[in-house]
Design goal:
- The protein has a single domain, classed as TIM Barrel (Alpha-Beta Barrel).
- It has an 8-stranded parallel beta barrel, surrounded by 4 helices. Strands 1-2 form a two-stranded antiparallel ribbon.
- Strand 1 and strand 2 form a beta hairpin.
- It is of the alpha/beta class and about 375 residues long.
- The protein has 13 helices and 14 strands.
- The radius of gyration is 20 Å and the shape is globular.
- Helix 2 runs parallel beside helix 3.
- The protein binds flavin mononucleotide (FMN).
- The site of flavin mononucleotide has 21 residues, from strand 4 and helix 11.
Length: about 375
Amino acid sequence: MLEHIFNIKLNGLLMSTKKLFETIDLETQTLSNRLAMAPMTRNRAHNEANAPTELHAEYYSQRASAGLILSEGSQISQQGMGYIDTAGIHNEEQVEGWKKVLDAVHDKGGVMYSQLWHVGRVSHAWFHDGEAPVSSTAQNAESQVFTPEGFQPTSTPRALSTEEVEVVVQDFRKAARNAIEAGFDGVQIHGANGYLVEQFLHDTINDRDDRYGGPIENRARFLFEVLDEVIDEVGTERSSLRLSPSNLMGSENDSESKALYEYVIRKLNDEYELAFLELVEPLADLGEHPQLAENVLDYYGEFYEGVLMTNGNYDREQAIEVVEEGKADLVSFARQFLANPDLPERFAQDAPLNEPDRDTFYGGDAEGYTDYPFLEEVEAAK
Ligand SMILES: Cc1cc2nc3c(=O)[nH]c(=O)nc-3n(C[C@H](O)[C@H](O)[C@H](O)COP(=O)(O)O)c2cc1C
């Protein structure tokens, strides 16, 4: 037993010489390590206002040893909501709820960004008083969303008018202001996984003929207008973006995916200085989609010049390696952080991990949320 503990400690010391466990300076704060908690929807805001609660404060503060925490996707408006009981960032109760979360996270020395989310057409009329959800298009996502009546097919959306697009851009701005008021250290625009930003970016969805449709520059206009407004509100040093350039969730991606995402990333290089850019690896088999980059980090990381976070199916060794090799500055973990509140310590010590329980990912209460044991508890129980 003693020898076991000694080995772990020794291992921990050895491993902590790896860059993954070293601090990194962002413009506004120093992160204690390069392991981030990825954004995760957990559907536990069970109240009329869809505000985070004490339980959210406990869950996030348990994970405050992450170099940086990204919040669950938080709808920027009622219009931006598509799943039951997701915590938003547009009304007063939500801002008050997030204040409690941020106080708890900051008390433990954590750093936390809010992920700003608009689902667009990945939604159901139930969330919109029986009206159609909105998108860049009027084509149905042909997907499923979880409503109070269980899983339902997505409702056919209504295409936003040109003027309405500007209103949504302003909703992002207001949500960013709310996030800072609630105490978040920064914001992340959710530009990944088939939601509204991708519904503008991808030509397999966007069928508009105004200035937000057609060539790449036009399809990317919505994203850059959102970025401009958010940055104007909270500063470039507190603004970040998540993209999933080889994503096949919610659409067939884009017919010229590499050209599209190269355009976006080069513009980020030339005109923006984000706190960081998070790139998600493909999470499913790409099948017959030769236009998509198989390895997002290798392909796009090559020419992104700013602080880069990578995500998707990493394990400890791979995370150590990409940071050590300088391919990425930060690595974010979703499922492993969900199940291991003390993930940085476990990785530093190369300790065993708790297994995530899929049945409690979405919805429910403390079970599978705040009851995953810390390493000391696991050791003490032996
Ligand atoms: C329960 C759960 C909820 C998720 N919710 C979000 C979300 O709100 N926003 C987002 O960008 N990605 C979301 N994701 C995707 C993760 O952030 C991440 O990209 C994915 O799980 C792959 O990372 P991993 O291999 O470390 O789990 C979610 C994933 C899981 C498992």
